[in-house]
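[09:14] KT: can someone run the structure on this one? pasting the chain below
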Amino acid sequence: MSELRRLHAIRALAAPVACALLAGVLVAACGGGGGSGDDDVNVVQPGAPGEAGRELTDEEAAGVEPPEHTPADTAFMQDMIVHHQQALEMAALVDDRTERDDLSLLAERITVSQEGEIERMEQWLTDRDEDPPDRDSDGSGGDGGDHPEHLMPGMATAAQLDQLEAARDTAFDQLFLELMIAHHQGALTMVADLYSAGGGLEPEADRFARDVEADQNIEIRRMQDLLAALPRQ
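[09:31] RB: done, structure tokens below
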């Protein structure tokens, strides 16, 4: 089992109880029919060692507060904005350098989805009084000068971007797909790192991270198929 799948297996068990545990209660799925009605979920307050727990009333359960965001959530959103911005920069090169309609459609899909996700992340940060990164940030993690370049997982280097910008036709298609696949795989690494750092308990942060994971996996598979269909250079 991959590390990301292992983390999600753990979180699949933990997610229903995460909010309640912070308030000293336990949410337990009940009922054997697999239904989704309100009667299928009980909220139980654990008892003292050796004692049975107590099922909470609806009114008591309604008072359970969801977890707040953490520094790991904030860093994930800030870094992922910069990560997405590079994907937009790469996608913007496609139309002038490829003759393939399918690659242009892919680039358009990436642009629409990642612009939308950037807006979601910026709003998430603003709503929590956190600072969105500068739109001009290059993701180097430094201030230029003598600091070494440090890119987030999967991000292309400046030299790779220059090479991509100079390429045309099939050479461009192949390099674009290779770099963008690596870029998307880096985003999956960032999602796994978020959960490893204890983030993603806040419901909206968790929902967004899972959306990113789903979208990136779909696009990775599509790009792998396109790459496999290209004529070899």
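[09:33] KT: thanks! The first strand starts at residue 26 and ends at 29.
[09:34] RB: yep, looked fine to me
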